[in-house]
């Protein structure tokens, strides 16, 4: 038993964010001593996902005993683990990365390997600073061989662009070629808009996409469900009221 927990903890202890998030498990009291100082394991007794949950661990014993209890049941067979611990050739535990809770889950694919899992738009500082805050959460579904760029266009309801940015999608320190399959990448992107004495009322659209900087060709967009505004020109559009 100790050998298995050593291996689970050894993987978790290598994660750069492990001291800033919670690891969810049915065996919290057993796993906790193996985790490095500052790391925190949480139990599933409450039946929900605690705040700041970053990883979830499912053990073979719980699978064989009728399945993991909620909320771990949403991961086993429903998500792809980022690591599998095996003992003597037998799968012993599955480690999953847990996406951070953003208000809009969209699951839009860009090319064959990258998926936009969810996003949030914050307009609280739009009138005071002219800045719209966009948070995006990506997931690599397969290895990514290139470093793509991320563009964001803010459009009024007539399709005129009123703001834009062009940046690395996961921030300057996380190029897409370094993204690992099945992991989530979260990043905040401030989008400056031109100052307006009275921001025009009505609808605004946040249009985004990925492209190859070598030739500016955009990655194909594939949405899991129809968007409120049609996806055109390999951009995915989301509605936001300023």
Going by helix content, strand content and strand pairing, the class is mainly beta
- H/E order of the elements? HEHEEHEEEEHEEEEEEE
CATH topology of the largest domain: Immunoglobulin-like
- Taking all residues together, what is the mean pLDDT? 90
Roughly how many Å apart are the termini? 55 Å
Instruction: Enumerate the strands of the largest sheet in spatial order, edge to edge or round the barrel.
Output: 2-1-3-5-4
Unreliable runs, pLDDT <50, ≥5 residues?
Answer: none
Top CATH class of the largest domain: Mainly Beta
Rg from Cα: 21 Å
Q: In words, what does this structure look like?
A:
This protein is mostly beta strands. The protein has helices at 2-13, 28-31, 60-64, 126-129; strands spanning 22-24, 40-42, 53-59, 83-87, 90-97, 104-110, 114-122, 131-140, 149-156, 161-167, 184-192, 203-211, 221-223, 236-241. It has 2 domains: 2-97, no CATH class; 104-241, Sandwich (Immunoglobulin-like). It is elongated and about 60 Å long. The termini are far apart. The relative contact order is 0.13. The model has no long low-confidence stretch (mean pLDDT 90).
């Amino acid at each position: 038993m100790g050998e298995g927990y050593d291996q689970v903890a050894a993987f978790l202890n290598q994660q750069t964010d492990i001291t800033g998030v919670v690891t969810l498990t049915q065996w919290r009291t057993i796993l906790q001593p193996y985790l490095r100082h500052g790391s925190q394991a949480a139990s599933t007794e409450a039946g929900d996902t605690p705040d700041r949950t970053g990883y979830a661990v499912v053990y073979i014993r719980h699978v064989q005993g009728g399945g993991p209890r909620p909320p771990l049941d949403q991961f086993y067979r429903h998500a792809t683990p980022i690591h599998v611990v095996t003992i003597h050739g037998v799968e012993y535990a599955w480690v999953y990365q847990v996406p951070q809770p953003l208000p809009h889950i969209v699951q839009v694919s860009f090319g064959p390997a990258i998926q936009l899992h969810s996003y949030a738009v914050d307009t609280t500082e739009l009138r005071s600073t002219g800045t719209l805050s966009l948070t995006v959460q990506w997931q690599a579904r397969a290895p990514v061989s290139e470093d793509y760029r991320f563009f964001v266009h803010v459009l009024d309801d007539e399709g005129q662009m009123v703001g834009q940015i062009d940046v690395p999608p996961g921030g300057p320190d996380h190029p897409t070629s370094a993204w690992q399959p099945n992991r989530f990448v979260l990043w905040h992107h401030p989008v400056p808009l031109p100052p307006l004495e009275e921001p025009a009322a009505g609808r605004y659209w946040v249009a985004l996409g990925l492209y190859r900087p070598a030739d500016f060709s955009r990655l194909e967009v594939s949405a899991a469900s129809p968007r409120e505004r049609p996806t055109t020109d390999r951009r995915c559009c989301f509605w936001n009221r300023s």
